[in-house]
Write a structure and sequence with these properties.
This protein is of the alpha/beta class. It is built from 13 helices and 26 strands.
């Protein structure tokens, strides 16, 4: 793991020939030695055929192959069949024009043991017929069939069947080491070409295989597709969601990353979904490709999920072609690299300054202040804080608010250590209405972000979270205020209001002033519905 991690951390795909070894990284390692490094290695590890199939599908690898008229029987490696990844092998062999590939539906082939070489079983081996065998053998080895005098090839070396020119083609009797090095060399060239790098024998291949190279994009494989399937299953719980489905098209079978079939929005739909687990943004080429595939497989809707977003050009074209451009949102999932952060606007209502007018039958202490007034040893400004918040909400357009109260009888208050009698008081506040904005991270337990509409789709029974920081609000001037009437049916949004009332004393309780009041009156400036004007 220590030897491969530097490659994985740079986004370099790790490609191998032996399924038992590759699936050790994908299955056993994350379970037996769980860590973030193990997860990363699992995401970046591929079988050779898986890597080729994905590069072909993405249009980054298009080998020049000559037609051949032949039949091939394909026997899958036990690990490949157990992990359901024989599809890529069939797809790669299917690129050879004229080669008919039939998958052998059987159990273990016995090639890893002695079945094919024992004297007692050699006659049965010799009866396998006259077809060319494409065997998923361990370690990419060529096996000799003593019953027919033929060689059985792994798919990684069947490229020689239809190639017009193979400068490094191995002969059937060459040793395993030379064949494996040849396959590694071809795999390295494909990876370099796939990631837009220039190939150089000295720069990328040595006696031990591949050396380090930079990449701007790494194709990370099935984990993202499985996440997308979970999200779509939550959005369309009654539909059938399938990962890696093959659909018949006019030019043969086409692989669908994720297919959704079912009754959606009161109509029968087939949604074609492409998943791009890339480090660079999805561009116009991918929009064109899925638009073409839509016609081939007769999809009613098409979606591209990107783990890194989309270019502006891709979004413009997708809008014209009616292609949904989305990103999966799954909280606390390390496979999700796309993060959503949007500006949230809030109305801010604040008390800028305030003062108090006291009505008393007796003389007040010299130098008294409203924030030092107590009732029953509790600070009166705690009641002012509560009432000022209510007044801000009720009269948000007011610049000045006067709230006058009259007590049922003279009440005792404390101020500067002295007891005073009050028959009433008037709170005078200078207020401000403004707008504030901050960038807010958003996430969903299981949902998606629509890049074209700028909306988050949240399935039923899923959680939507936003992370605010009150220190990050900044004041802005809006040309147009938010209007809730612009919202469409089935949507929701947040209408935020930030209140900055009179600051309370957080260490004290709120005095029960409301129980003492006989009459109250509120006057505002400018005049507001429900309040009197200030004379």
């Amino acid at each position: 793991m220590a030897a491969l991690l530097p490659f994985a951390k740079r986004g370099v795909p790790i490609v191998g020939l032996e399924p038992s070894c590759i699936f050790t990284f994908r299955d056993e390692l994350p379970s037996m030695a769980p860590s973030e490094d193990a997860k990363l290695l699992a995401k970046t590890t591929f079988l050779f055929e898986e890597f080729l199939a994905r590069e072909i599908e993405a249009g980054r690898f298009n080998p020049a192959l000559a037609p051949i008229g032949a039949n091939a029987l394909l026997h899958g490696h036990c690990h490949q069949k157990a992990f359901d990844v024989m599809g890529p092998v069939q797809k790669v062999l299917g690129r050879v024009p004229g080669l008919k590939v039939d998958l052998i539906e059987s159990s273990c082939c016995g090639m890893a043991g002695a079945f094919g070489y024992q004297k007692e079983t050699i006659d049965r081996v010799a009866q396998d017929g006259g077809a060319l065998s494409a065997a998923g053998s361990a370690q990419g080895e060529w096996r000799y069939d003593p019953g027919r005098g033929r060689h059985i090839m792994p798919p990684s070396d069947q490229r020689r069947i239809g190639t017009r020119r193979d400068p490094c083609r191995p002969g059937p009797r060459q040793k395993h080491g030379r064949i494996e090095k040849t396959v590694r060399a071809w795999a390295s060239r494909l990876m370099v070409a796939a990631m837009g790098c220039h190939y150089s024998d000295d720069a990328f291949i040595d006696e031990e295989g591949m050396r380090v190279f930079d990449s701007s994009m790494g194709k990370l494989g099935k984990p993202y597709e499985n996440i997308v399937a979970l999200v779509l299953g939550a959005l369309h719980p009654g539909a059938n969601v399938v990962v890696g489905e093959w659909v018949e098209g006019p030019d043969g079978e086409r692989e669908i990353d994720v297919a959704v079939n079912g009754r959606i929005d009161d109509t029968d739909q087939f949604i074609l979904v492409e998943c791009k687990d890339w480090k660079k943004k999805v561009g116009i080429e991918q929009i064109d490709a899925i638009d073409s595939k839509r016609d081939d497989v007769n999809a009613t809707r098409v979606m591209i999920f990107s783990n890194s977003g989309f270019t502006s050009g891709a979004l413009r074209k997708a809008a014209r072609k009616n292609v949904m451009c989305v990103s999966a949102l799954v909280a606390d999932n390390d496979a999700i690299r796309f993060t959503l952060e949007r500006e949230r606007v809030a109305k801010r209502l604040s008390v800028e300054t305030w003062r108090l007018v006291l009505y008393s039958p007796s003389e007040l202490p010299e130098g008294w202040r409203g924030d030092e007034l107590l009732f029953d040893s509790m600070p009166l400004k705690n009641w002012f804080s509560r009432i000022s918040a209510d007044l801000l909400r009720s009269y948000e357009f007011a610049e000045t608010i006067r709230h006058r109260i009259t007590f049922r009888k003279p009440e005792e208050f404390e101020c500067l250590g002295k007891t005073i009698l009050l028959t009433g008081m008037e709170l005078v506040m200078r207020c401000k209405r403004s707008w504030a904005v901050q960038s807010v991270p958003e996430d969903v337990s299981r949902g998606l972000y629509d890049h074209l509409k700028g909306t988050v789709l949240i399935p039923n029974n899923q959680a939507w979270s936003l992370e605010f920081d009150n220190r990050n609000w900044r004041e802005v001037t809006l040309e147009k205020e938010p209007d809730a009437t612009d919202m469409q049916p089935g949507t929701m949004d947040l209408q935020l209001t930030l209140l900055r009332p009179i600051a309370p004393d957080s260490n004290s309780a709120v005095p029960p002033i409301g129980d003492l009041i006989e009459e109250s009156q509120t006057v505002v400036e400018p005049p507001h519905e429900g309040a009197a004007a200030i004379p």
